[in-house]
Specification:
Elements (H helix, E strand, L loop, with lengths): L4 E8 L5 E11 L6 E11 L10 E6 L7 E8 L1
Parallel strand pairs: 3-5
Antiparallel strand pairs: 1-2, 1-4, 2-3, 4-5
Length: 77
């Protein structure tokens, strides 16, 4: 099974070894036929590196680390 890789922007770094990444996706609405943007936040784990709010990062699926963390940061873009 391949693991999903998402790209997003760091919106919070307040927790230890955790960043909150906002991932935006665009899709065409089935009825209105307009392009709609949706944002979703993911809690991602990192061991080393210094990330700040506004950085673009890539995250990959992983085994659950805690209640909310199921993603790992694989690097900044």
């Amino acid at each position: 099974m391949t693991k999903r890789i998402l790209q997003g922007k760091v919106v919070s770094t307040k927790n230890l070894k955790t960043v909150v990444v906002s991932v935006e996706r665009k899709f065409r609405h089935p009825v209105l036929l307009k392009v709609v943007k949706k944002n979703k936040k993911y809690h991602a784990h990192y061991e080393d590196g210094n990330y700040s709010v506004g950085d673009n990062v890539k995250i990959i699926e992983s085994a659950p680390i805690s209640k909310l963390k199921k993603w790992k940061v694989i690097g900044a873009k």
